[in-house]
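Handout, page 2. Input:
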Amino acid sequence: MTDDVFKALADPTRRLILDGLVERNGQSLFEICARLASRHGLGMSRQAVSQHLAVLEAAGLVVTRREGRYKFHDLNTEPLERIATRWLAPEKPENTP
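Output:
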């Protein structure tokens, strides 16, 4: 799963999508597309953004929820926290197995 997270984060557009979800969680596909266009000048099709969201969801970085006919996307920071604690965990004493 860690490889999926790194692959998802490798793309600058996906990082912009995550940045947008940090600013305001629970966005629809339309809102994400509009934010990418207005703030970053990325005129991407909804299908292209949807494919990016699918990669982020497969990596566990985005979770979706349905409310009626709308689908909302939320940031899930747990995969990032696991990566950070992997290398930022307290050091073990040298003689500890």
